[in-house]
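INPUT
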Amino acid sequence: MLIIDCHGHYTTAPAAHQKFREQQLAWMEDPTLPVPRPAQISDDAIRESIETNQLRLQQARGADLTLFSPRASAMGHHQGNEAVSLAWARACNDLIKRVVDLYPENFVGVCQLPQSPGVPIAHSVGELERCVRELGFVGCNLNPDPSGGHWNSPPLTDRHWYPFYEKMVELDVPAMVHVSASCNPNFHATGAHYINADTTAFMQFIEGDLFRDFPTLRIVIPHGGGAVPYHWGRYRGLADMLKRPPLATHLMRNVYFDTCVYHQPGIDLLARVIDLDNILFGSEMLGAVRCVDPETGQYFDDTKRYIDALSISAGDKRRIYELNARRVYPRLDALLRARGL
Amino acid sequence: MLIIDCHGHYTTAPAAHQKFREQQLAWMEDPTLPVPRPAQISDDAIRESIETNQLRLQQARGADLTLFSPRASAMGHHQGNEAVSLAWARACNDLIKRVVDLYPENFVGVCQLPQSPGVPIAHSVGELERCVRELGFVGCNLNPDPSGGHWNSPPLTDRHWYPFYEKMVELDVPAMVHVSASCNPNFHATGAHYINADTTAFMQFIEGDLFRDFPTLRIVIPHGGGAVPYHWGRYRGLADMLKRPPLATHLMRNVYFDTCVYHQPGIDLLARVIDLDNILFGSEMLGAVRCVDPETGQYFDDTKRYIDALSISAGDKRRIYELNARRVYPRLDALLRARGL
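OUTPUT
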């Protein structure tokens, strides 16, 4: 059995990369500054940043492979403009590609998109295509709120988003719904904005007919689906009140939840309520919560421990750890098959 | 043991009441129209609206008493202006008072506030005081986002809100954090906006120091605390990462969750994760989800069934059903004691 972590971010990229971002934003303020260029980063710097962090923990915790994307909170779609967002997304994705090339058995790429408030999502299609066709990435992170907490884009079920979904279907890649930092002081990024976005996206899908229009579109909602599994009765009831089909057919052939829920009772609920075919192992490592749980003595985000502790069969665990990810990310499956896995 | 439902709304008010609201909003559009006056509603009309709905279900489901407030989704703080909001809040609260006077053993009042975007919360103090001192209400619903989904007020921990908290402390009444309808198409009201607001408020409390400044302030977060209990590990970890005190001392002497979680696994998680002293029975009846769960054959919002099914002692159930509510709402306790209860 392979252990595939569907949700990892390069939160530890060398400082020069973040410095490029700061130069970008400074240049936005003062265009007389030289146009910033992506940082020159050595293989050794990348190796150190990975081997002391994500790779070390991946191996220590017993995972085989991480679907690896740029740091979500740093996507910062609300900052800069479309050109800045594109340059930043390309630099971030290129860095992911270098990690993958250095550790092809441990990391597979998932891309950031060059979204920008008010810019048609069709303008993100090119970078998706580049990352999938040229860099070999297997999925993308789609931000439902590029404003960073003002929520002034149309819902994900609006035709606004359709050009992007068409390309996802054509390339056969899923999207993880993932917001970035919040510039709204009401919303702490990882404690409110992320979770709210997950909940919001799911309810939008209930209200809409997205998967009637795109029956093969696949969406991963991270952080255990936000509030959804805990309120599963509410969502089943709302679907009924809104005269929608049952969730099992209306959404759950297309929507998946990861396991980024940082305590045993939460994972127990997830596995009790949600069909195991819709759950993908994920840790968000290194991400929102990097400390040790004093109640268990283990890291909060060592989510594999919680899944290992579930009272389900080895076959069911394999669905969560491997088989669902291979089904949701067919390009990952193809890549593994080519390696005889 | 008394069964006290801390979360009920007058969602079935006679149509004339809603017509007054429509007249208000029409008058905002066209001030040449006559100034609308609150509807004249007969006792019989109120009796019918209550006896066929909330009272019938309260009795059928075995609750004794409901903390009863105006329909939350109709508060509509984002509509009209301050004067309109005040007239509407007064009319809504006066109607609650009439229900309470007709059924004093079954309903106790909780008030709506005349909030309006950009208006200082101090302007809501008068209506709180009127409802508590003159009408005998025991709590209030405080809207953290009077914009209806644009989230442009300061966080609940900001000093903006302090004049209101000072009055709450003086009157010794708690607030339930409760948003109203959403005018943001991203957020379905009961499926996203409500739950997001609950999650958001809790995370604001983690970030802030509200209960250091108001050690006796009490806040009820409805809908089972939004996403919080499901992500309890995340919140414990975030508190640690943000160098905040442990949640037990930082928040949980002041913050309470209701049981408006519409399936057994959700209530099981709530009771497993959250100290039972912080859980108050609530149903939100008649509220967000009014249909029967085909999986159980029972109404989704008959939350008493889920609590009855918990594997906890009768004494623990009494905390959830009665004792916590009496502690959080001292004016309710005083009222019950005066009746020998």
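end of record. The two ends of chain A are 9 Å apart (CA to CA).
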